[in-house]
Amino acid sequence: MDKRKLVQPYAELAWALLKTGILGYGGGPSVIPLIRYEAVQRYRWLTDDEFGEILALANALPGPIATKIAAYLGYSQKKALGAAVAVVAHILPSTICMIALLSAVHLFSQSAIVQGIIAAVVPVIAVMLGMMAYEFAERAVKGLGKPLGFACFVAAFALLQVVHLHPALVIVLFLGYGAAHYRTAAWLTAKRQRMRRQRAERNGDYSA
Amino acid sequence: MTAMLLQCWQLFVAFFRGTMLGFGGGPSIIPIYQNEVVNNFHWMSNEEFGKSLAMANALPGPIATKLAAYIGFKVAGWLGACAALTAVVVPTALIMVALVGVMNKLSGNPVVKGMVRGVQPVIFVMMAMLAYDFAKYAFQSAPALGKFGFLPFLIAAAYFIAVQYLQVNAVWGIVGALVLGAVFFRG
């Protein structure tokens, strides 16, 4: 009895995150509603609002989102061991599948059928990456506004393709700009307003 | 043995760096990993990376961890897979748990919000460049296919229409392309 009570929270964590790791097709975004269901409705580890806050934090930090949420859920229930159980349960099945599948493909890579399969996937990769790229472009334009968004595209392209700056450096540069983005935007609006006010006052003086 | 440990260390460094720069979830990390794996450490060709990516997309679970596990495994076996996975999962999990206390301040913080937004144009350009590379590979394979030379274009168009307009799950798009390839692309 006592022993079962001891193991049960870990078993629940492992089961909830194992399921979501196996059923969540298509990466991060598709998994989040599934994890929300397990954590909020089924096991009641937290409220819907709390889950929303956790999700917002996971979105603001670097790295894959689902593993960060899994780590938090595990930690909130059973500290470090809970976090480890939750994360491992979430990623282990798909990890092993991935290694097994690609090793099999490698093993049969001389077979004409496997070569055909590999060739057919190349156009799909191109379209897949293109669609993801479009999503990021859309988000960038929405987040930064049209003029600044397009200016950033040109600047990023120039730095990466013309100057051949290391991509990590380019990312750090843009992160740095992003950190100051809101302050810059606020400063620009304030300046514009101040100028407008001054002009209005001057006009007022003339008319007076 | 020392060579193996060195490789594991390099895997850790590559995936740690890549993950820490990947703001905005799984997909944003892909071009950054590609740069580490293909351009920096030469563990794979661009094409091989693309194949791994397609498989990772066809399987359930987070994309970044599947990519890291497979690439780590390919470079240094199971130990390599562990090293790469640790680099992806552990640091970000620690940061997440550590920051939950100051969460409310952080996720609404204009500096953090700005960083997530500021990096998106770079991810777009890197992703688009990668897409261009693969479009190029697809065109290059066309002449060798003889009378089936139109197939790469057909597959690309069909995948796009199915996933974008008919709401078909990307998994079925990938599986469909694999079947077509098994039937028509044979030498």
Automatic annotation (TrEMBL), chain A:
It is found in: Cell membrane. InterPro entries: CHR_Transporter, Chromate_transpt. Belongs to the chromate ion transporter (CHR) (TC 2.A.51) family. Pfam families: Chromate_transp (PF02417). This is Transporter. The keyword Membrane applies. Keywords: Cell membrane, Membrane, Transmembrane, Transmembrane helix. The chain crosses the membrane at residues 81-106, 112-132, 144-163, 169-190. It comes from Gordoniibacillus kamchatkensis. It comes from the Bacteria. It is a multi-pass membrane protein.
